[in-house]
């Protein structure tokens, strides 16, 4: 008989005792972490670190933008975005230059050389999608997308941090961190 091996704590069904009151939140946290790890593995093949693809996606879709606008769009710490841009610039994927309308501001744009990266990111995300949703039929995929949209909306209301949404910090809707 084979000796029992310790279960991988990442893939166990059992909830830690402190998470018993939030099984869905615990599952969402685990899934988000695993999804990010899988994305990281796929993006490494394109020479990217996790998160850099969001910077590039925004630049490919928006064209040149001020660095301050990019920081808001990708919702990351300014120092994190600056480091990402340094790496992307060194790799030849982005170019930064002074904004001709305001020389104090910096414009960031994707380079022609990033076109090959664009295809690699598209392929990585398509691959990630298939691995993530393997075993789900089209109706289940649509239902999961619908349910995740509802969860996202709930979290946006609670955090008052929804991109493209009006500020939701009225006294009836705001929630302190202690209440969450």
Q: Kindly state the number of beta strands.
A: 3
Helix segment count? 6
Kindly report how far apart the N and C termini lie.
Answer: 48 Å
- Which series of helices and strands comes N to C? HHEHHEEHH
Keywords:
disordered C terminus, 3-stranded antiparallel sheet, disordered N terminus, mainly alpha, 180 residues
Task: Outline the fold blueprint.
Blueprint: H1 23-44, H2 52-62, E1 65-66, H3 67-74, H4 78-90, E2 94-99, E3 102-110, H5 115-133, H6 138-159
Antiparallel strand pairs: 1-3, 2-3
3D structure, described in words:
- By secondary structure, the protein is mostly helical.
- The chain has a 3-stranded antiparallel β-sheet.
- Helix 1 packs antiparallel against helix 5.
- The longest helix is centred in the first third of the chain and has 22 residues.
- The N terminus and C terminus are likely disordered.
Short description:
This protein has 180 residues and is mainly α. The chain has helices at 23-44, 52-62, 67-74, 78-90, 115-133, 138-159; strands at 65-66, 94-99, 102-110.
């Amino acid at each position: 008989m084979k000796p029992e091996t310790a279960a991988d704590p990442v893939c166990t069904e059992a909830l830690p005792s402190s998470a018993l009151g939030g099984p869905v939140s615990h599952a969402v946290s685990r899934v988000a972490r695993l999804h990010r790890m899988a994305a990281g593995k796929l993006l490494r093949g394109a020479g990217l670190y996790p998160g850099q693809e969001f910077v590039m996606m925004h630049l490919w879709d928006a064209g040149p933008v001020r660095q301050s606008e990019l920081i808001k769009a990708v919702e990351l710490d300014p120092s994190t975005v600056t480091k990402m841009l340094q790496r992307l610039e060194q790799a030849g994927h982005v170019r930064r230059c002074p904004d001709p309308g305001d020389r104090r501001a910096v414009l960031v744009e994707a380079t022609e050389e990033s076109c090959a990266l664009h295809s690699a990111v598209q392929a990585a995300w398509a691959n990630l999608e298939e691995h993530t949703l393997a075993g789900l039929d089209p109706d289940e995929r649509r239902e999961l997308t619908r349910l995740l949209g509802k969860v996202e909306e709930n979290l946006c209301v609670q955090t008052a941090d929804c991109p493209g949404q009006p500020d939701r910090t009225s006294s009836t809707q705001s929630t302190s961190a202690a209440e969450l």
